[in-house]
Amino acid sequence: MNHGTLIFLGLLLTFLGSWSGMVLAPQVQIGRQQPDVQLQPLNRPPAEGDVGEIYPQARAGIAAQGREIYQREGCYYCHSQQVSPHPADARWTQLNRFSVHRDYLFDQPAMFGVQRLGPDLSNIGLRQPDENWHFVHLFAPNAFMDGKAGNKSTMPPYLHLFDYRKVMPQGGSTSALKLPESVVLPKQYQDGYEVVPTSEARALVAYLKSLRQDVNLFEAPIPAPKGKSNVVSQTATNGAAK
Amino acid sequence: MPASPSIQAEVSREVSGRSNADSAGKIPLLLLSVFGAIWFVASAFLFFLSAMKMHGPNLGAAFPFLSYGRLQPAAMNAFLYGFLSQAGAALGIWILARTGRTKVALPAVLTFGGVLWNGTVLVGTVGILAGYNTGLPWLEMPAGAQAMLFVASIVISVCGLLTIASRSERTLYPAAWFIIGALLTLPWMLGTASWTLLGQTVRGAVQLSVNGWFINSMTWLWFGFLGLGALFYVIPKTSKTDLHSRSSATLAFWTLAILAGWGGVHSGAPLPRWIITISESANLIFLVPIALVVHNLWNSTDAEAVSEKESLSLRYARFALTALISYALLSVSFYLRSRNLTLQLTLFSPGITFMLLFGFVGFSILAGYNLMLPALLGRSFNLGGIAVSLIALFMTSIPLILGGMKQASIWGDESKTSADVVKGLVPYMGMSTLGFLALLVLSVVVLLRIVRELKTVVVEDCGCATWAVDTSESKEKQ
């Protein structure tokens, strides 16, 4: 093997091989997949008059801005956004539905996550719809630890997403955080101050609340609850087959 | 008995070839090497800070750039592109010039490429810390920086390839195959990833497949090939033996080249099953070329090294081989589907990745540095630091691997919460933090050693030493 040309051509071929398999082929097979119209859109039984809903839809407005904050802060280094079909992953989905390509169609980039130092967030919007909970958790991640000895979070507090504001004489702001007693503010803010989320915090929480993979898809059906027929899955399957 | 004339001529040709190779490329190769060492310190410092954040997440909470989510990608990118890539490229081009008995081609252009590369990595790392993260693992630097990195990679690769193209020694040694392979594929990989991922030409889960392809290709075709190129040069040279088997090296080279891009997708990815199955198979078959390489090189290390300097290189090389085979064995258990589904998003993955990147590639580079830097500077010295480097490797990788297994078992138990995960990981993270501290110490030791030798050479070259003596003498007279 003394000819550089041979090495060049050989490497070009091997490189093209893996490029075709891992870049081109997936793009051809699923890259052009389109959103689907689901007869039974959300986590509820089909009802008369359902006209369907397009899934997925691009995140609108403030939630789209929140995705950029999530990206900027590198949240994907500790939180994944992918549920595999493995039983151990069932804890991340209330509906026992795993993630598929279609769930990420409008996420550029899709942040699947590097590791799970914290919980998977694919369905955090379903699991925790309370806005105040998210704000408090971002401001003081230890606030919701159950108080057992040694329980603590490794998540950093995102203080730059919040402002301390003097409480006005006419009363506190409606957007101020409802902090649990376990959260102690710095000394200088303990009297007459409230914590208010910035627009970035609002955007991030709107994004987190928008994270929900709860639509019944042909390629990822939601199993019927025990003892009930899988009307939902069947409907969607037939729809997709057509 | 005096040496025969033919042997004397051969020795003279060898010495003259080495001298040519070293003098022509001295400035760009030293630039890349020294800045590589500086980035080693910077990345180790960032790794240490991010590890500290696991114990004290409130540390520096008022400063957004000190959050784990910014520190960790900044550390990783500085380590990959600042240290490993730059130091590996310098070493690779030096080996090409040495084995080809030629001069480094276009040294001025290579210097420009080095400056461009460093400027880009600096902008990219600061960009990540400042919040301009692209959100794509191993491609986190802002898109503009990625584009500049692509341009710099072309400049550096062209200089390396022109160096080997102008060789006077027609035989291409296995070390050169791997380095040529690395230099050829780097711009392709960076270009494709920038075009598809940062250019947003693919969407949905295809991004996961492309990102996995990029990471795996970079791991093996760039970092892995640079590491192997270094070992295939260092081991026969320091052992004063021929390579055990050239045909085995050929087989390993092509098997690695064919498999490299296929293994980047984990078992639970939201992708079609055939992609996952191919990826799993490629990861398992990888054991074959790795076994070939380790067997081949280990059998080339039988002879006793002759000098202390070469002995240190050989020891680094042997530890690099040990890390490579350890990675291969661990990765078999990692990539089996049943295991991968639980271990895929745990600390196990960064643990074995670090074992490969630092234990194998990093040690190979240090083995080569120990030969290259004294040759470039024209001084005999040892880099040292082998004990600290072993502590750093052992204390970073092993706790992460064990911690990953613990993490998988806790997440697998539905009664356990994320607080239990944190509690379970504390001892492992504590160990790995000490490991990153050892890494920082090692990087500082290496940098200080290089700077000290460089300073001595600069002082000698510019005659400052004589000037200093003159000055002190004149002071005495006064």
Radius of gyration of chain A: 23 Å
Q: What letter string, H or E per element, gives the SSE order of chain B?
A: HHHHHHHHHHHHHHHH
Major beta sheet of chain B, specifics?
none
Segments of chain A where pLDDT lies below 50 for 5+ residues?
A: 229-242
Residue fraction in strands of chain A: 5-15%
Q: Let me know the largest β-sheet of chain A.
A: 2 strands, antiparallel
Total beta strand runs of chain B:
0
Question: Proportion of β residues of chain B?
Answer: under 5%
Number of helices of chain B: 16
Number of helices of chain A: 6
What oligomerization state is this entry in?
heterodimer
* Strand runs of chain A, count: 4
pLDDT below 50 for ≥5 consecutive residues: which ranges of chain B?
1-11
Secondary structural class of chain A:
mainly alpha
Q: Which geometry of chain A do the CA atoms define? A: globular
Mean pLDDT of chain A: 83
Structural class per helix/strand content of chain B? mainly alpha
Radius of gyration of chain B: 23 Å
Structure at a glance:
The complex is a heterodimer of chains A (242) and B (478). With 242 residues, chain A is mainly alpha-helical. Chain A has six helices and four strands, in the order αββαααββαα.
Give your account of this protein's structure.
The complex is a heterodimer of chains A (242) and B (478). Chain A has 242 residues and is mainly α. In chain A, 31% of the residues lie in helices and 7% in strands. Chain A is built from six helices and four strands. In chain A, strands 1-2 form a two-stranded antiparallel sheet. Chain A has a two-stranded antiparallel sheet with strand order 3-4. In chain A, α4 crosses α5 (199-209). Residues 229-242 of chain A have low confidence and may be disordered. Chain B is mostly helical and 478 residues long. Chain B is built from 16 helices and no strands. The longest helix of chain B has 44 residues, at 418-461. The relative contact order of chain B is 0.09. The model of chain B is unreliable at 1-11 (pLDDT under 50). Chains A and B meet through α1 of A and α3, α5, α6, α7 and α8 of B.
